[in-house]
């Protein structure tokens, strides 16, 4: 028959008391963290999720700003009205043109700038500041700036074209339907090049020098090193940057709204500017339905973005 000594009993009490102390410490830490996060949760809930819920609800109601006394539930009527509008197909096509025509030049020019900034040269820091400056300016302000630049009467673009002999008369850039989309895309390319320059430059600086030196020792030239070593190494970052930029451009009405407002003749009307137009007309039901569709498209691209991001984290 075994007997417990006082030391053994004290040791048993100490061991048994540790889990309780750990549980108290864990609960206290949990509530402390929750208390610090509560203001952020409340802010996001009030200013993000509540408007999202209300906007989703309005998409299924007849909700006019001019008659708030009657907002009946009408199911999918707003969506059928929207899809039956002849402007819907052209607006979606304009949105695709807006994204693709802006994205490709932004990526190519940003890639070239990043390659140039990766090398060391005199006043590189100053040049980086000049290149990265547009990203710090409001998109709406950029739109106003380019609206004046493309002004048919006293815009700097027409002035340069006429001084160089490339145009005999002022070109109505923002008044001609076939030229308006080109003008807004030029403004968006100038604005978005900075994003790709920053992202790609950061990726290029993360490429190990040992890999580049090994490629040079093996006799690989500059272009072969770029396409067979550098680009494969940063491919995941490039894909992430492209997907993220697609989401932003698709949901970016600032420049178009400031330059053309969707005109002339709806030739620069994209989904988000059309949604703003419905809001200005007081038809919040149709605007919410269109916003619902835009949100669905953005969720698809966000899913792709998160999928690539998780795959990159596993590799």
Descriptive account of the structure:
The chain has 315 residues and is mainly α. It has one domain: Orthogonal Bundle (MetI-like fold). Helix content is 75%, strand content 0%. The chain contains 13 helices and no strands. The protein has helices spanning 6-58, 77-84, 86-118, 124-132, 139-149, 156-163, 177-205, 209-217, 222-233, 235-250, 254-259, 271-280, 284-314. α2 (77-84) crosses α13 (284-314), α3 (86-118) packs parallel to α7 and α5 packs across α7. The longest helix is centred in the first third of the chain and has 53 residues, at 6-58. The radius of gyration is 28 Å and the shape is globular. The termini are far apart.
H-E string: HHHHHHHHHHHHH
Hey, roughly how much beta strand do the residues contain? under 5%
CATH homologous superfamily grouping = MetI-like
CATH topology: MetI-like fold
At CATH level 2, the architecture is Orthogonal Bundle
Total domains: 1
Main pleated-sheet profile: none
The helical percent reads over 70%
């Amino acid at each position: 028959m075994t007997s417990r000594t006082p030391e053994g009993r004290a040791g048993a009490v100490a061991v048994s008391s540790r889990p309780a102390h750990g549980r108290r410490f864990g609960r206290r830490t949990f509530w402390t963290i929750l208390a610090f996060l509560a203001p952020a949760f409340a802010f996001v809930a009030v200013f993000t999720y509540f408007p999202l819920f209300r906007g989703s609800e309005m998409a299924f109601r007849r909700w006019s700003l001019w008659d708030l006394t009657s907002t009946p539930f009408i199911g999918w009527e707003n969506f059928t009205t929207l899809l039956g509008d002849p402007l819907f197909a052209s607006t979606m096509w304009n949105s695709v043109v807006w994204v693709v025509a802006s994205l490709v030049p932004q990526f190519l020019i940003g890639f070239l700038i990043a390659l140039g900034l990766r090398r060391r040269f005199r006043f590189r820091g100053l040049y980086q500041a000049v290149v990265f400056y547009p990203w710090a300016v409001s998109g709406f302000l950029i739109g106003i700036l380019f609206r004046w630049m493309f002004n048919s009467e006293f815009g700097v673009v027409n002035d340069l074209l006429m001084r160089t002999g490339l145009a005999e008369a002022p070109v109505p850039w923002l008044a001609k339907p076939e030229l308006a989309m080109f003008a807004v895309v030029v403004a968006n390319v100038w604005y978005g090049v900075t994003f790709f320059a920053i992202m790609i430059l950061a990726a290029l600086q993360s490429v190990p020098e040992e890999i580049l030196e090994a490629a040079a020792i093996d006799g690989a030239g500059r272009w072969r090193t770029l396409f067979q070593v550098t680009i494969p190494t940063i491919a995941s970052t490039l894909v992430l940057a492209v997907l993220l930029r697609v989401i932003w451009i698709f949901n970016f009405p600032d420049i178009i709204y400031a330059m053309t407002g969707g005109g002339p003749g709806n030739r620069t009307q994209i989904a988000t500017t059309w949604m703003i137009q419905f809001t200005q007309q007081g038809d919040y039901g149709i605007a919410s339905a269109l916003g619902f569709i835009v949100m669905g498209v953005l969720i698809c691209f966000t899913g792709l973005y998160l999928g690539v991001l998780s795959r990159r984290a596993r590799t």
